[in-house]
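Need tokens for this chain, all 104 residues.
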Amino acid sequence: MTFQHILVSLAALLAFSPTTQGYTTPCIYQEYKCGYALVTDNVYNNTELTDAVNKTTIIPPLSPIQLLQVLYRCEDVNGTLAGNSFCIAGCISMNGTEDDQCAL
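Here are the structure tokens for all 104 residues:
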């Protein structure tokens, strides 16, 4: 097999591979994370956080700064987010030892 045939085969394989999502390391199923932790780790962007909040009827539309103070829940193994609650007093990151939580 020539080098050109190998490249064509590789290109065909990549063309039919499933597409990847916008994040590099998704959240863990049923994990709760603060918005700022998800953005700081370069995992999610503001558009993904906005989409998660907009599909949750209990949270009103928020500004990009407010999105960082939302507690998000990971809905599935693919890293899909749902807004759980807007933390009025601030969101507390537990640094991976436990689920993040809203300050009281």
